[in-house]
Specification:
heterotrimer; A: alpha/beta; Rossmann fold; six-stranded mixed β-sheet; four-stranded antiparallel β-sheet; 10 strands; 25% strand; B: mainly alpha; two-stranded antiparallel ribbon; 14 helices; 4 strands; 3% strand; globular
Chain lengths: 243, 319, 290
Amino acid sequence: MIETRELRREFGGVRALDGVSVRIAPGERRAIIGPNGAGKTTFFNILTGELEPTSGQVLLAGEDVTGRPPHQLARRGIARMYQRNELFEPLRAIDNVALALGASLGPYRPFTAPPATTVSAAADLLDRVGLASRHDATARALSHGERRQLELALALAQRPRVLMLDEPTAGMSPAETAHIASLIASLERTLTIVIVEHDMDVVFRLADHITVLHEGRVLADGTPDAVRGDRTVNEVYLGKVVA
Amino acid sequence: MRRRVALAGAGLVAALALVTFPIWSSEWESSRYATTVLRDMLVLGILALSLDLLVGTTGLPSLGHAAFFGAGAYAAAIAAQRLANDNLLIGLLVAMVVAASLALVIGIFAVRAAGIFFLMLTLAFAQMVFALAFQAVDLTGGSNGFAGVQRPRLFGLDFSAPDALFELVAVTFVLVVLLLWRVRTSTYGRALVGIRENERRMRALGYDTTRLKLSAFVLAGAVAGIGGALSGWSLRFVSTNDVGIGRSVEAFVSVLIGGSGTLLGPAIGATVVLFIERVLSSSIPFAETVLGVLFIVFVTAARQGIVGLLATAYSRVRR
Amino acid sequence: MTPEVAVQQALNGISFGALLFILAAGLSLIFGMMDVVNLAHGAFYMLGAYVALAVVQRTGQFWLALIVAPLAVGALGLVLEPLLLRRLRGRHLDQVLLTIGLSLVIVDVIGLVAGREIRSLPFPAGLDRSVPVLGGDYPVYRLFVIGFGILLAALFSYVHRRSQLGALIRAGVDDAPMLAALGVDIDRVFAATFGVGAALAAIAGVVAAPVFGVFPGMDVDALIYSLIVVVVGGLGTLSGAMAGGMLVGPADTFGKVLFPQFALALIFAIVAFVLLLRPTGLLGRVRITR
């Protein structure tokens, strides 16, 4: 589904990514892990089009999409959940989701209000992520956990082929974390999911396949058991966490 | 639902009162001074409303919007003269097309910037339009301006008389308000609001935000052009003042004082601004200073404008 | 165009460029440190010219005016920043709007106090003659402007690179919040910056006055030119103001002489061209367009 070839990205003199080649199959649950500064966010930003690689290629379902801007990638089925929420703060939750749904309808309708189908679809989506009683609350007024749920709803509203989750459980309580993890686990298998995470419990629960990044390179790439047992990975990263 | 009907009803009454103003005011207002001032308030109001589509709805602070207002004014006046045709619809069409085309040309560059940089670019480009109008003396009259603008006609209706022209301006104003109301509540308008609130997220959702911003810029320019045509017909005169930074600032001040991002705020602001510039200035010599100070006060202490103050007062009363 | 005329126009272009540099430097400084585009910059320029006018009328001393005007206008800026801008700290767009309001007030007050006729500042004694330059006579004053620009540029460069103040400025342009976190009194720095920026605008006003005159509306011209110069040259850097000035000055001068109808289109084309190729402006570090 997604393939990157020798992806490199430099910032000034710093090599954030130094030849990352990765292949993610359709329907796979891929976790990208690694210490801070390993290049995970850079990798993510390239896959979603917010950053251009210095060299290398990105292929989506066989099509070369290297360097394409975010809105074109979104149109091709990539949806993103940001690490730091990117919501429409003063709008109500339901309006947030309606806006996300509206993207596929085509926004050039200057005189017609959003159709009722959009509104009900937005409501359904909010219910699905666990915000059933919070439709009318503004994004600003939601709790941190609820904001993450809304963030997920926005991504799902795009009906994507690939869901990119950037630290979905960041800043959440154990209960909220468990909730979001279940939510993600319950998503359709037709959806390819790429998830960057620090919470190893969540990673090992959700991932089919793990890629470990370190200093801009792939350190290990395999099944959760393989990665758990990998000595280098343990020294560099997992060794600090209870395996 | 009842609230909606009540609001619609109130709106209808207000619109009717506005449009029939010359009739019910004729007793206490034989000199037509109030009618003239109100007419000019409505014209500035149209400009301010069109600007707020950019500033309030989309979050694009344009400080060069008068370029399109003036372009529309010149276009309508010059077309009537050159084509020897005073048809209202032709005049409006020419004004809109010229203004929109100019907005397209400027917008292609300006829209690629954001925030303060967008403000600077629109200011600079508009000033170039000003200088162009200044220099093209054969076409525009240069610093002397374009005098003797013919008022339009439409199938036998002649808008030369003050009252008739007022009707034209008032009806156009109401139509503009309706148009912008529809746009703001449409999926398109909501997308513009989305861009204002979080452009990054909009792009990630699949919206081509650059194209959307450009379309808003052109639409706002076209409406400003209509305002310009009305201005030329009202004053029977078009000058570089209509296209210069003073007019752009006037519009921006109107938007801010009235309430950016609201339906009628910009128009309310326009009435305040024009009152100060026209009525107050005949009594005191420092009217512009008053305007500047008022603007500063609003920017620092009442950022949401008059509408914002009213809304806050209303919600306090309801508690 | 004869060689003599060409030389004269070239010198005109360079002296105009020097003036633009002095004018734009203040704008660039305020933006670099405070992230505020001071739209009252033209008003400060105008105020400088009118203050100089008052001084010269009273004392006949141009050089005194050149000192008093920037001090007076700089003091005004020093007072206005804590009074008005500080409470909008962090709201950059609103600060810019505030400067619009300031500009309206300053310009109107000038008109009320000094009247709205076109005035001019007489050339200082000694600089009101012409000297032979490569075949033709050239006004000494314009050469003075070039020299003055070079002097200021050298002064700025020294301060920027060698002094503690310069280090403070360089750090502030890079990362003002960090500077505050390190314990520097950022309030004082910002107030001083605004004051210095205003003073620089005033100096430009005084220097330009004998050549360009003193009249209502001069604030708009100055503001537009300074914006064009910093956009082209790059925001926030002194070398940007220099580069912008040296590009726009001669381009404007030659444009007006060679094809007056299109001089403006030329400037427009330069702005558009530069922004398309280098969205940060020639030497700037802040992206203006995407």
